[in-house]
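User: What would this chain look like folded?
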Amino acid sequence: MDSLFAARSTMAISLGFHIIFAITGMVFPLLMSLAHYKWLKTKDDDYLILTKWWMKGLGIFFATGAVSGTALSFELGLLWPTFMKHAGPIFGMPFSWEGTAFFLEAIFLGLYLYGFKYLKPWTHWLTGLGVGICGVLSGIFVVAANSWMNSPSGFKWVDGKAIDIDPVAAMFNNAWLSQSMHTVITAGLAVSMAVMGIHAFFIFKKKNVSLNIKAFKIALPFFLLSALLTPISGDFSAKDVAKRQPLKLAAMEAHFNTDTRANLLIGGYPDVENQTVKYGIKLPGMLSFLAFADVDAKVQGLNDFPKENWPPVVPVHFAFQIMVAIGSFALLVALIIIFNIFRKKDYLKNSFILKLFIIGIPLGFIAIEAGWTVTEVGRQPWIMYGILKTSEAVTPMPGLEYSLFTFTALYLFLASMVSWLMWRQFKLFQKEEGSNA
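Assistant: Here's the prediction, encoded as structure tokens.
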């Protein structure tokens, strides 16, 4: 097995697994804190049941995310030593701040998990809120490091070395704002969709409807806000990519030839060899408009760049289409809910709407995975965009396929354990809510 393929596959599996836990740690504590707040204000035991159930789920996800995140940290140094040699002194700041946020998050979580009997009620609530705030900050700092890989800045590259390093400029690089904003918003969308879908399932099955409606409505504002903001942040990100990484945009849209009034492509299968797209729907001028706010703007095609620098077009295009399709689905569902709210209709008695949310349980996470595929695979063949190629940064150590198999087995084991533990929590939750019905 090729060392570069093994190294990239190991990172892809590790990041794909970890990101689920990372975004859950950004949003889930905020839902838990809101349920806790409602219990403190109303003394309604349903909110206490939800708080404790979500707290236990958060503990499971946090512990597993800590393991997978630690593995990723080691992989950066072991698999990409040349990259870390150059990049470590430059983007060390966001990593150190991420570590600080993570440690604070762990401390707050420990206080929260064991603080029900020992802390004053509102002090205890603040520790839970602290978990959520630190989780969001931790995610933002990690994205800052990743955005630097897409937009290297804060240094001068002279004779293969980085000089005149400015870590602040590196952290707040040109890609930082768009990537951070889009990540936070879509994390809110993915987690709220999953939570609402789970409780919509219980409502659909008519199991303790009152409690599950309360849970659904706690997550509802997160869903509506993030569903409405996701297209806006996505448009902002796409315009940013069009300026900084036109080759990535061309791969996202399977746009081979530079053109004015460029077509926006919906669906389609890119035939890279013949440089055509089969079965796609073309919207004339819309790619130019979405990329540059001008239907007559010129959009660079893949053929403007050396072919050896092309990212893998097919997976990038498909991932982008999946991400956009799920975002559109979420927006449509949000608009249906808003319409029903204004019409003062009880949408939670509508089985069709409940089924939409049940279908949506995994979709937000699939969109997150697709979005990161666009970000990471779309940057290839560069690990530092335009400066250092991935093939130049990989370790010369042989036998990387063994690391790939080991980490794959580890994550499969962790996934099975998390699935079993969460299923166990579901069963306990149903028993507990039944005893309080």
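Strands lie at 156-158, 161-163, 259-260, 264-266, 269-271, 276-278, 281-283, 298-299, 382-384, 388-389. If you want, I can go into more detail on any region.
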